[in-house]
Design a protein that fits this description.
28% of the residues lie in helices and 18% in strands. It is of the alpha/beta class.
């Protein structure tokens, strides 16, 4: 199995993730329970934000998740 970098290309998603990470107390019971166990479900180990000025040239094969406007 090959390992690929995974990026998401969305300014709106990046802003939403900041809000989700900040206001855990406003989330549902499952998310609150995970957070109390020391796990933040909004911190991803394998998915990184693709900055708007970051180029993908010279990067090994990767997956980019993007909304239609970012394509």
């Amino acid at each position: 199995m090959e390992n690929f970098d995974i990026f998401y290309a969305s300014n709106l998603a990046a802003k939403c993730m900041i809000i989700f990470r900040t206001y855990i107390n406003m989330m549902g019971d499952i998310v609150k329970k995970k957070f109390k166990q020391g796990k933040n479900p909004f911190l991803f180990n394998y998915i990184k934000e693709l900055k708007h000025n970051q180029l993908l040239r010279g990067i090994d094969p990767c997956v980019v998740l993007a909304n239609p406007g970012m394509l």
